[in-house]
Amino acid sequence: METLRIQARFIVASPQEIHHPGQLVIRGGTIIEVTPKTHLPADVELTHHALLPGLVNCHTHLEFSDLASPLPAGGSFPEWIGAVVGRRRELSRLQTVKQGIEHTQATLARGLEEVFSSGTNVVGDIVSMPWQPSWLPAAPAVLPTPFATPRQLPALVPLVSVLGEELPAELLQLHLGGQRAAHVVAFPELIGLDTERLNATCQWAQQLLQAPAPAGVEQLGVSPHAPYSLTLAPVLEFLNRLPRSVPRAMHVAESLDELEWLAHGSGPFRDAFERLGVPLDAERPQIEHCIDLLSGSDRALLIHGNYLTSHNIDQIASSGGTTTVVYCPRTHLHFGHRPYPLKQLLKAGVPVVLGTDSRASTPDLDMLAELRALREQHPWLSPETALAMVTSTAARALGLERIHGTLAVGKRAAIAVASISETCSKATLLESLLSGPS
Ligand SMILES: [Zn+2]
Fold first, then answer.
1. pLDDT (tens digit per residue) in 328-339
2. What is the ipTM of this complex?
3. How remote is the CA of residue 52 from the centroid of ligand 1, in Å?
């Protein structure tokens, strides 16, 4: 079979283009046709399903994917960070270097498996020193277990696991062989309030960026961690040497504690720094500086932005769409932040996408659950805009719009499948997907 023609009850090529029923043709991992149903016989018919672009999760830290449940939000944001860092230290104290790497490798594999099995094909992952691309798992030799009946499913699964029941393994390998695992956009993290540590992370990131593109990594960016965890001058010096095409990502305006520290040098961050013996006299970057730093790249992610002011939002908008804000709805709820400024961001024309953040602040890495939390928090949002935030807009934010984000000719066959109810119509499809099982 030179090509694979799949017919499905619905094909959501993009939030604006739904075929009912539709056909999609794949050849060697690439989509070569997407149409309403034709007279040509399909190789596979999925009569109770909708095909969607594989979702894109713009922000997580896969290294915490071994956590069974989120760490409690605690009394302050630095307290939670302390718990995350403390857990990492405790693990490395108990393990040899080799055991530590093996543990991280197993954790990354587990996280990627969780991401992929819930219908997400691309994940923006913040990686910390000494992460290496070789720590990522090879694509699994065995295909994910096919499901028996739609009722047993999570709501979204990768196409390859649905077709596992229908087609011989060699055909799947031929047409979907490249889509057996989620792909990573890795952002090496620059962090350190002391110059030595900060420079070490810059050098490590530099080496990663200079190496040939590794397998499993779709793209490499760089992530200055947050305005409270680094000094700006050395980071800017490093970033200014990089081409504008290298994506940047930074946690900005995440908590009120951060804003208090940046504006006044007081509050829980000051207490934490005093306890740790961190010198308190260094210049503190302001939110405006971080937005500026991000606008130095053609693709930048401002992560969280929970407490962006209207002035900040105007400044982001003036980047002309190169900076995208990443909203993590369930993490936002976990910390009990003030209502998210989604309406203001969208009104100003700022692209907004979704991320799960890590399992240290969210119960799992399921993007459909994030979408549903988004809709619950912002019921005014159209399902089309919501879906774009995890597909087309998200792929663009990571610089992958040529190969991901919609089901279109020439793009990767990165496809998610939803099982749908009998009563679903073209008009109600997206709404029912986003509102969850009834
Ligand atoms: Zn994060």
1. 999 999 999 999
2. 0.99
3. 26
